[in-house]
Amino acid sequence: MKGELLRRLFEGDPEERRIAAEDLVEYGDEETIRALFRAMVTDKNRGVKEACAESLKQIGGELVMREAANLLNGPDPLARALCLEILASFGEKAIPLLMPLLKSPDYNDRKYALDALALIGGKRAMDLILGMTGDPEPNVKYTAVEYLSPMPPDSKITEALKGLLEGAEDEYGISTICQVVRSRREKELLPVLLKKVKGVEDPFIKHWLYKAIVVLDGEEHIKEALENALRIDAVEDVLKDIILAKGEIPEGVKSFIRDKGIKVKDQLLEEAL
Amino acid sequence: MKKALVVDDSLVVRNYHVSLLKVLSFDVDTAENGAEAYEKCLQNSYDLIFCDINMPVMDGYTFTKKIRKHERYKNVPIILVTTLNSEEDRKRALLCGATLFIVKPMNMAILKKMLEAVS
Amino acid sequence: MLTQETFDELRRIIKNYSGINFEDRKKYFVENRVSQHMKELGITSIKDYLLTLRLSQERVRELVSKCTVNETYFYREFYQLEAFAELLPQMAARRRKVRILSIPCSTGEEPYTLAIVTNEILGDLNRVEIVGVDIDYVALKRAQEGIYSDRSVSKLPDKYLQKYFSRNGNGWEIKPLLKKAVKFIEGNILDRRFMRSLGRFEFVFCKNLLIYFDTKEQRIAAAHLYDVLSEDGYLFLGHAESMSRISSTFRPVKVKGAILYQKETEEDEE
To answer: How sure is the predictor about A248, in pLDDT bands with cuts at 50, 70 and 90?
Structure first.
C-alpha cells in the first residue's frame, strides 16, 4: 500500500497526489517523510503542498523537525511558509535547531528563524527574540522588536525598548518601536518619548511618537499631537488613538476640532464628536 | 481620492505603510496575505498595491501573478516591498509581473521617488 | 456561574466531541445551555454533571446539540441564493444530476431553501440530490420532520410559502415533494473518512461553521471541503467568513456580488 501511495504522490493527477499525501500520514518512516518533503517543495499544486505539510505535522519526530529547519530558506515561498508552520508545531523542542540559523551571516536565515521563534512562543523563545533586537540588519532587528508586542510585562523588555527608542532615528524604526510601546502600554517610557519628540523635526516621525504618547498618557499632549497631525493630514488617526485611550473624546478636543474647522470623514469619529 | 492596498502579514508594517500612504492622500485598505488581497481586489478597485513577499497562505509572487490576469489589474502598479534581497528574488519579482521590487525598510523619501517612477 | 476551570473543562469536552471551540466571550452562552441541560437531567451540582458527561457519550452529544443551535431561517442571505440560481442552470446542463451539500444544515432551513430555489429554476427536483449534514442529531430529527414556526418562514416570499408548505397546527410543514428531495446525514466535518464517504458535490454550503474552529481545525475542515467539492463546483461560506486566511487551494470568484470559492486548478508555474 505504501509503495502505491508513494507512486501516486508523484505520478497521479492532482487529486490522487493530494489524497496520497493525506493517506501517507499512516506511515512515519524515513522514506515517507523524505517523499512528503520532496513533494511539498516540488509539486506545482497548492492543495498537494498543503496536504504534505499537514501529514508531516502529524507524523512529527526528529527527522521532520530537522528537514523543516533545513528548508526554511528554500526558493519556494509556499514551502517556506509551510516549513515555518511545521517547525512551530513542535514548540520549544525546535528551538535548538534554530540556534545556528540565528547566527547565520545571511540575514534572511536570521529572519526566518525569528519568525519561527515568534510562532513557538514561550520564555526561551522570548529571550532569544529579545537578543535579536540588537541585530545589525534593520529588517531583522525591527521584526524582533515587533515580536515583543504580545509578551507578558517584563522589565528586561522595558529596558530594551528604552534603549532602542533612544537610539532610533529612521521612520520605520520609530514607528515600530512606538507601536510596540503603545500596545504594551509601557508607561515608563513616557519621559523618553517626550524627550524624543522635542528633539525631532520631521512631522511624520513626530506623529508616531505622539501616537504612543497619547495612548500612554494623553491629556496635556493631545493638542500638540493634533497640531502636528494637522501638518500631515493625520488628525483622524490621532482622534482614534484618543478614543482608544480614554473611551471618548474630551470636550477640550471637541472644541479644538470645531475651532480649527476640521472635517472628519470617518463615520464613527463623526458620531463621537 | 486614489485607493491603495497594503498587503503584509505584519500588523506593524501594515500600520506603517498605511500611514505613509495616507500622508500622500491615498485611501488605504489592508490585507494579511496574498489570498486575502486577491479577494479584496475582486471586491474593490485599487490604483496602487504594496505587497510583501513572504506571507502565510499565499505569497506575494503568486498573488501578483494571479491578479495580473485580470484586465482591471494589468497595469496597476504592484510594488513588492520585502525583506528579501537575493538576486533570485529580484528576478522572480520581475517575472511574476511586479512593477517594482523594493527592499525594506520603506521610508517617505523612497516612497515619493517610487511613486514618481510608477506614475 | 461557572468557574473558569469548569468552563475550560466543558469546552474541552465539547471540543473533543465536535472540534468546536468556544471562546471566553461565549462563556455566558455555554453556561446557559449547561444549566438548561442540568435541569432536564435533574442534576443540581456541576460536579455530578461533569461526571455524567464523563460517563456518557450520549449526554455529551446532547450538550453539543444544545450549544450548536444556530439561528437560521428560510431565505437567509438572499444574495447568495441569487448567485446559486445564476449558476445552477449551467451546472445542470453539464451533468445528469447536480449534487448539493449543506453542512452544517441544522434544522433544515438551508437545504429546503435550496430545494425551493432548485425547483423554481429547474422545475424538476429529480435533477438534483440535496444532502444536509449536521453533527447535532436533535436538529436533524427536526429537519426530517420539517415543521417550522412563523418566524423561520418570515423571509420567504408568500407565494413559495403557499406552494411548498402546508399548515400544521401553529406551524408550517414542508410538503412531501421537498422532503423527498433532501437527505439528512449525521456527521462531523472534521472526520475525514466520513467526509470522503459523501462523494463530490457541485455546490457546497458551509456557512458560519469555520468561525467556531481554531486555525488547526479550520485547515482540516478546509481540506475536507476541498475533497467534497467537484472540479467545477462552488463553495459558499457565511458572509463574514473567508477562505483567504485559511488556505490558498481555493480561488475566490465573484458571482452576482457574492464571493464564492472554486478549487484552484491552475498549477503554480515557475
So the answer is: confident
